[in-house]
Write a structure and sequence with these properties.
Strand order of the largest sheet: 3-4-5-6
Order of helices and strands: EEEEEEEEE
Number of strands: 9
Largest sheet: 4 strands, antiparallel
Number of domains: 1
Helix content: under 10%
Structural class: mainly beta
Length: about 100
């Protein structure tokens, strides 16, 4: 898998190296239509300290199959809003 995280062997769905981030904030599943179809049903996670957002992709059985970097070099992303499109609230403004 690519990205900052990976699945674990002990049943946890998502584990990541804390040297690339330190304050992960769970997102929600994207169900909008503003992005291409492959984004449907994916989950966006962000890391406040690492300044990144990644996209977790699941198969139809809800198994994690890949992790992809979605955005980086953000200034402390604190909130995601997925009302149709995607808005990211960062500590010092919107992205």
């Amino acid at each position: 898998m690519s990205g900052a995280g990976a699945a674990s062997d002990d049943g946890r769905v998502y584990v990541y190296d804390h040297t690339v981030g330190n304050s992960i904030i769970a997102g929600s599943f994207y169900t909008g239509v503003q992005y291409p179809a492959q984004f449907g049903g994916t989950s966006l996670r962000r890391d406040y300290g690492g300044g990144w957002i990644e996209r977790l992709v699941f198969d139809t059985n809800e198994n994690l199959i890949s992790i992809n970097l979605f955005a980086s070099n953000l200034t402390s992303p604190v909130a995601l809003e997925m009302a149709g499109g995607l808005s990211v609230l960062c500590r010092l403004g919107f992205w």
